[in-house]
Amino acid sequence: MKDKLQELRQMRMKARLGGGEKRIAEQHAKGKQTARERIEMLLDSGTFQELGGLATHNFTDFGMADKRFPGDGVITGFGKLDGRRIAIYAQDFTVLGGSFSQVQAQKICKIMELAQESGIPVIGLLDSGGARIQEGVKSLAAYGELFVRNVLASGVVPQISVQMGPCAGGSVYSPALTDFVIMVKKTGYMFITGPEVIKAVTGEQVDFESLGGAMVHNSVSGVAHFAADDEGSALRIVKELLNYLPLNNSEDPPRVTPYDDPARRDESLDHLIPESSDEPYDMRQVVSGVFDRGSFLEVHAHYAKNALIGFARLDGYPVGVVANQPLFIAGVLDTDSADKIARFVRFCDAFNLPIITFVDCPGYLPGVAQEHGGIIRHGAKIIYSYCEATVPKISVVVRKAMGGAYIAMSSKQMRTDLAYAWPSAEIAVMGPEGAVNILYREEISKAANPAERRQQLIQEYVDKFHNPYSAADMGQIDEVIEPSTTRLRLITALEILRSKVSSNPPKKHGLMPM
Ligand code: HXC
């Protein structure tokens, strides 16, 4: 038995070295940690239980007989993060570039199945050149196995991907099927085909960074939700994110011990909205005045900045926050912000997070580029996601709620439980200039002083609609509230809605516009 134990210890020792000391040194020289170091950095100390640590492939072609490494380039298992259970896999770039193999698929799928059945989030730390070329179609089939697990787990347990190296092919498609993608700046890359293939096929010359670097995917493509300065920061984002999320879709999100007075009034909110309705202000000031101090975790911060989304807490309870951001293109809705909002609303709905929406939006962005870019199709996603969501939903019209934006941004008619408005709310079909031009073109042109008449009509329109009272009169707004009382209003409303029961008609699935 002693020899057998010795043998096992030696095998484990070898497994710890992955692709060997030279490869580990190369990995460190690139500013990257090894897969095991990353797992140790993330998990509570001593909680990692590895599975499949000794598994290897059985391929012999292309010199593979000499390239067998215990674990086969991925480390998989379970552990605890802040005392809560998670499933984790980390690809090991030191072994054949972390390339994805049949064995990798078996190992990752195994923990994903256990995680789904036990209701535990899955965290992937990716660092892989995609399908292992030497395994041919078998590694492609292996990706199919993984994608099925990603999709079946979607909406059941949270799935988070951290891109920590050059990730290609399937190593970007699997993350794209997960809920959040975090990229490490300067070392994390995502692309379907790398610069060399692109040059050969299209003749375009591009480097890793401008093709698929962290900021490209955070600000341009929208594939990634967070950009981290280094690996440690990326793993801290995983921790922070999980603090707001339930382990699975049958649990409530975890409440923290409340640390901020529920009745706290932020008087600055009473003076935040500028006199001129075209003047911008920072919606983040509303968020910081209303939610528990310092609790806002912004998601997709660099993408479609005209929309603001993220997680926050109210009296310790996690919520999802959606808002227009007047600082960027007046907070209009366009194709990208529609995607950003709709996806987030669906995530919150899947994982039992109440959705609080702050509205200050002049409408959908007009223009040929937006129309041809599919603003109808994309914009419909916001409507679909809010209508479909059965979690508690509360909206607060802060300033503009014009036309399509009024209805799309969690309007009361779209199953929003409570609709509040600030006295600064402007709820109308469109802005005064446009409305007057359409309704009174002839009258204005025939007036003795067209400019003066036009101004009069604009003022009449403003007097009628640039307030929340018509909407409140019709019951479309439940209550007009003082801005500084918003926090207490939301906390007491959520107390009522916490036991809300609502469902959708039975169906295989809806057909959300894609
Ligand atoms: C087998 C691979 C590999 C792969 C890298 N390696 N990718 N081995 N299969 N897919 C190996 C290299 O041969 C090398 O081994 C080691 O990993 C490190 O790779 P380098 O190229 O030296 O590293 P680097 O310069 O940092 O470049 C990393 C890289 C590049 C950008 C990932 O290796 C690359 O472009 N790989 C191929 C990427 C790709 O096109 N994948 C798509 C696969 S198709 P040695 O022993 O020489 O050091 C796919 C289909 C999915 O995934 C379909 C989804 C729908």
The total beta strand count reads 17
Number of domains: 3
Helix percentage range: 25-40%
Tell me the overall shape: elongated
CATH class of the largest domain: Alpha Beta
CATH superfamily of the largest domain: 2-enoyl-CoA Hydratase, Chain A, domain 1
Tally the helices.
19
Radius of gyration: 26 Å
Indicate the CATH topology of the largest domain: 2-enoyl-CoA Hydratase, Chain A, domain 1
> Which small molecules are bound?
hexanoyl-coenzyme A
**Mean pLDDT across all amino acids:** 96
Question: Which key features would you list for this structure?
Answer:
binds hexanoyl-coenzyme A; 514 residues; eight-stranded mixed sheet; 2-enoyl-CoA Hydratase, Chain A, domain 1; single chain; 19 helices; alpha/beta; seven-stranded mixed sheet; 3 domains; elongated
Structure description:
By secondary structure, the chain is of the alpha/beta class. The chain folds into three domains: 2-242, 2-enoyl-CoA Hydratase, Chain A, domain 1 (Alpha-Beta Complex), CATH 3.90.226; 267-429 and 466-497, 2-enoyl-CoA Hydratase, Chain A, domain 1 (Alpha-Beta Complex); 432-465, no CATH class. Helix content is 39%, strand content 17%. A hairpin with a 7-residue loop joins strand 10 (297-299) and strand 11 (307-314). It is built from 19 helices and 17 strands. Strands 10, 11, 12, 13, 14, 15, 16 and 17 form an eight-stranded mixed beta sheet that branches. The protein has helices spanning 2-16, 21-29, 35-42, 102-118, 137-153, 170-176, 195-202, 208-212, 214-220, 231-242, 283-290, 335-350, 368-372, 375-388, 403-408, 432-446, 450-465, 469-473, 486-497; strands spanning 49-51, 74-81, 84-91, 122-126, 159-163, 166-168, 180-184, 189-191, 226-228, 297-299, 307-314, 317-324, 355-361, 393-402, 418-421, 426-428, 479-480. The radius of gyration is 26 Å and the shape is elongated. Bound molecules: hexanoyl-coenzyme A.
